[in-house]
Write a structure and sequence with these properties.
By secondary structure, the protein is of the alpha+beta class. The chain folds into 3 domains: about 140 residues, Schlafen, AAA domain (Methyltransferase, Cobalt-precorrin-4 Transmethylase, Domain 2, 2-Layer Sandwich); about 260 residues, 2-Layer Sandwich (Heat Shock Protein 90), CATH 3.30.565.60; about 60 residues, Arc Repressor Mutant, subunit A (Orthogonal Bundle), CATH 1.10.10.10. Helices cover about 35% and strands about 20% of the residues. The chain has 17 helices and 22 strands. The chain has a 6-stranded mixed sheet, covered by helices on one side. Strands 1-2-7-6 form a 4-stranded mixed sheet, with helices on both faces. It has a two-stranded antiparallel sheet with strand order 3-4. α10 runs antiparallel to α11 and α11 runs antiparallel to α14. The N and C termini lie far apart (about 55 Å).
């Protein structure tokens, strides 16, 4: 695909912003190819790819300079082919800006099966880079480990835990698991003894002393896994302000707890903590009343399971917890390990692909119940995130957003509140008592009449969802239209402003 259109667009953006960006590296290159060229190629290849442009002067508003375009193009070919490992197959072209020739190279992301891409002369440990804002930085040893482990199937969850034995597992949960495997996994399991089943299921390691247990077994069925791994837990923090800054009275947190136990108990504990911190409203359903939470409970539960199930369990990550952070306008889930496998965030959301860093753990969680329910912890069919998206849509909430990096995978839920949309300041503490999108609409209308489009900006909802909210408020006698609803200029105002 020709690069001319892409380069023209990106150069216009760089001129407007006054700088290049995380996905674009622009160099003057008047004296030839920059020495840092292989480092930038490595950085783009280890991330989401990017564009290198040679022949523009950032200090002069990204105006073109006289360059030997053919020689620069040959230098790019050589850098991509000979100076990084593995070689990068870039699209390199001579294009024009303001009528002068420059050189552009589109660097694709490297295949996860061969990452990291590194500068040959520096070696993998010192020569592996990633983009950070508008520059390149070294990958850490942990990030390199993650990329290398992504070449195959990690076995960290299947390793025996030093010092742990079957006595450290919950006997009731072990018996329940064995019974379920006998009932659902076919004749081989139906006729096997308990120890065979525990080995086949991955609770006990193969070829080890019969009393040993794996990390997956301990995290799934253990009485208290944090005795052996103090940081393999969940931390939950609720902040009073959207930027995490303290309130004017010095309040830093509305809640701040660590949640321990095996994975099923940690998931249940997080849901309990969130229900104490979330707002809720009551709606009439038929002749009854139903509580509607700020975020759907099933979506929260699925994201918690996802974070614990797919986090990195390598010893280098034993000091890192799954973090859940709640702000007035959003809920964030962070798990160590980044995105594993070849699936992209869009693949995960749409259910086109699924990859499991911890295959044994995922399999076990299919057959372990959530506390106090008859439901298994997970289905392990790649459908959980699609369910999250459906739950959010049904609740008129913005969609799920992923923010992956090499070392951390982040998932973001938003509740539709956005302080920036208000025409008058609202004190941070007000957000702790807003429990409804309707209340948010009323707060916005206090500043004067608003159109449907205005309220879409305020709430983050679509036109239809806002119309439903306004209809409900009108039926309650709280808002009225300024003119006919069919008028293109109709706005909405409070009945008693």
């Amino acid at each position: 695909m020709p690069l001319q259109d892409d380069v023209s667009t990106l150069v216009a953006q760089a001129r407007l912003a006054g700088t290049d960006t995380v996905g674009v590296e622009i160099k003057k290159a008047a004296g030839g190819a920059p020495k840092s060229l292989p480092e930038t190629i490595s950085a783009f290849a280890n991330g989401g790819g990017g564009l290198i442009v040679l022949g523009l002067d950032e200090a002069d508003g990204f105006k073109p300079v006289a360059v030997n375009a053919r020689a620069l193009a040959e230098s790019l070919v050589s850098a991509c082919s000979d100076r990084v490992e593995p070689a990068v197959r870039a699209n390199i072209e001579i294009v024009q800006i303001d009528g002068m020739p420059i050189v552009a190279a589109s660097i694709p992301p490297s295949d996860p099966a061969v990452r990291p891409c590194y500068v040959k002369t520096q070696g993998m440990e010192n020569g592996s880079y990633i983009r950070a804002h508008d520059g390149d930085r070294h990958l850490t040893s942990y990030e390199i480990h993650l990329l290398v482990s992504g070449r195959g199937q990690p076995q960290d969850d299947a390793q025996p835990v030093v010092g742990a034995s079957l006595a450290d597992l919950d006997k009731t949960e072990v018996a329940r698991l064995v019974e379920r495997f006998r009932r659902t996994r076919g004749p081989a399991f139906a006729q096997a003894d308990s120890m065979e089943i525990l080995r086949w299921a991955g609770v006990c390691p193969r070829g080890e002393e019969p009393n040993r247990v794996t990390l997956a077994g301990l995290m799934t069925l253990g009485k208290y896994p944090q005795e052996f791994f103090p940081q393999l837990n969940i931390t939950f923090v609720s902040y009073p302000t959207v930027d995490g800054a303290p309130m004017s009275d010095g309040t830093r947190f509305l809640d701040n707890i660590s949640i321990d136990g095996p994975i099923p108990q940690m998931v249940a504990g997080l849901v309990d903590a969130l229900t104490r911190s979330m707002t809720r409203r009551s709606v009439m359903v038929g002749i009854g009343r139903e509580d509607v939470w700020e975020y759907p409970l099933e979506a929260i539960r699925e994201l918690a399971v996802n974070a614990l199930m797919h986090r990195d369990y390598h010893p280098l990550a034993w000091g890192s917890q799954v973090r859940v952070e709640m702000y007035p306008d959003r809920l964030m889930f962070y798990n160590p390990g980044g995105l594993y496998g070849a699936a992209s965030p869009s693949d995960l959301l749409e259910g086109r692909a699924s990859s499991s860093r911890n295959a044994v753990l995922c399999r076990l969680l299919e057959d372990v119940q959530m506390p106090g329910t008859n439901h298994m912890v997970c289905e392990n069919r790649g459908t959980g995130l699609r369910m999250v998206s459906r739950e959010l849509a049904a609740a008129d909430l913005p969609g799920l957003t992923f923010r992956p990096s090499v070392a951390v995978f982040a998932a973001e839920l938003r509740n539709g509140l956005d302080r920036r949309q208000f025409s008058h300041p609202i004190p941070p503490q007000a957000f702790s008592i807003i429990d409804d999108i309707d209340t948010l609409i009323i707060q916005a209308l206090m500043a004067g009449p608003k159109s449907n489009a205005d309220l879409q900006q305020v709430t983050g909802l679509g036109r239809t969802a806002v119309s439903k909210r306004l209809k409900g408020l009108e039926e309650q006698g709280r808002v009225i239209p300024t003119e006919s609803r069919k008028s293109p200029n109709v706005k909405w105002q409070l009945v008693n402003p």
